[in-house]
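TASK: fixed-backbone design
INPUT:
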């Protein structure tokens, strides 16, 4: 019986860890997107006019 509770606890801890890491990846991806947009806006005046 103890082994079942151990497996349930380990599974819950694993899901908690995966959820935590997923949130970190999501936040990092949002930050990267914002950084790319900022870099684009800084480069706009440098680009030669098209056409």
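OUTPUT:
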């Amino acid at each position: 019986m103890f082994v079942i509770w151990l497996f349930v606890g380990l599974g819950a801890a694993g899901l908690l860890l995966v959820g935590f890491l997923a949130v970190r990846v999501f936040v990092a991806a949002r930050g990267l997107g914002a950084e790319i947009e900022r870099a684009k806006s800084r480069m706009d005046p440098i680009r030669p006019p098209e056409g």
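COMMENT: The mean pLDDT is 90.
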